Amino acid sequence: MKKADRLKKAKTPPRNEKYGDRLPPGQTLTKKFPILHEGEVPEYDMNTWSLRVFGEVEDEKTFSYDDLMKMPQTTIVRDIHCVTRWSKFDNTFTGVKFSDFLKALNIKDNVKHVMVYGDQDYESNIPLEDLLHDDILIAHSYENEPLTPQHGYPFRLIVPHLYFWKSVKWITAIEFLEEDRPGFWERNDFHNYGDPYKEERFSTDDGYMPEDEWLKKDFD
Ligand SMILES: Nc1nc2c(c(=O)[nH]1)N[C@H]1C(S)=C(S)[C@@H](COP(=O)(O)O)O[C@H]1N2
Ligand SMILES: [Mo]
Fold first, then answer.
1. 18 partner at 20 to 30 Å CA-CA among 26, 56, 118, 142?
2. Which of 193, 27, 38 is nearest to 118 (CA)?
3. Is residue 11 in a domain?
4. How many domains does the structure of the chain reveal?
5. The domain spanning residue 155 has which CATH number?
6. Quick one: which of 207, 91, 217, 219 has its CA closest to 156?
7. Residue 45 belongs to some domain of the structure
8. Residue 182, exposed/middle/buried by CB under 10 A (0-12, 13-18, 19+)?
C-alpha cells in the first residue's frame, strides 16, 4: 500500500516518537529555511507600496508601509509546517496582529471567510475565525530582521496552525467574504483548510507528496 493510502486509513495519525506531538505526522524537521513560491521574487519601492482591503467592509481602504508600522506590534515564536513535508521549530516573527489590523476597519457582520492576495498572482482562503487567533500576523520581520525578499518582504501573512501555503508572501490585498472561495493551491487539489496535525494536504484521494520534495528547493 502506498504511504499516502496508509496514512489516510490510519485512524490516529502516526506520531513521530522523537518529538512527541509537536511534529505533525509525515513531517521532517529542518533547521534551514526553504524558499518556495510561484513566479519571480518581486521588488518594491516603500514609497509606493500599499495593501488594499476590499469586499464585505464598510469602507474599502489602502494602507501604506508606514500605516502598518505605526500599528501595535506583536512578536510570536511558533513552529511552521509546509505541505511538502518540512517543519521548522521556534520561528520568531514580528508584525501587526491580524485582530489589531481589523480595528482599523469596519468589516460587515456577514464576513465568514477571507481571501489573502500576494504577488505574483497568488492567493489563499482562510476562515475569518482562524485569523482571529492571537498568533496571526501580518509580519514584516523574521528573527528580528526585516523579511528577506525571498521570504516575503515587506509583509507576509503568518498562520502558524495551518500548512505554510496559507502564509501568503508579498501580501498585496485582503478581501472579506461571506461565502468561501478556493485560492490558488486550494483550486489545485490542495486541501481547503490544511490542518497539518490532521494531514489535510489534499482535496483528492490520490494526492501524494514525496518525502524529498522540499530538499530540491532553495534555502537560506
Ligand atoms: N505570494 C506567495 N506567497 C506564498 C507562496 C507563493 O507562491 N506566493 N507560496 C506558499 C508556500 S506553498 C509556502 S510553503 C510558503 C513558503 O514560504 P517560505 O519561502 O518563506 O518558506 O509560502 C507560501 N506563500
Ligand atoms: Mo508549500
1. 142
2. 38
3. no
4. 1
5. 3.90.420.10
6. 91
7. no
8. middle
Cell of 15: 506520531
Preceding amide of 120 cis, omega within 30 = yes
- Binding pocket residue ranges, ligand 1, CB within 6 Å: 33-38, 82, 118-119, 122, 151, 164-165, 167-170
pTM score: 0.93
pLDDT band at 183 (very low <50, low <70, confident <90, very high): very high
Closest C-alpha residue for ligand 1 atom 20: 151
Nearest CA to ligand 1 atom 2: 169
What is the Å distance from ligand 2's center to 58 Cα? 33
Half-sphere exposure of 7 (CA within 13 A, CB side): 22
Residue-range definition of the domain harbouring residue 215:
26-38+58-219
Separation CA 82–CA 28 (nearest Å): 10
- Taking only the tens place, the pLDDT of each residue in 196-206 is 999 999 998 88
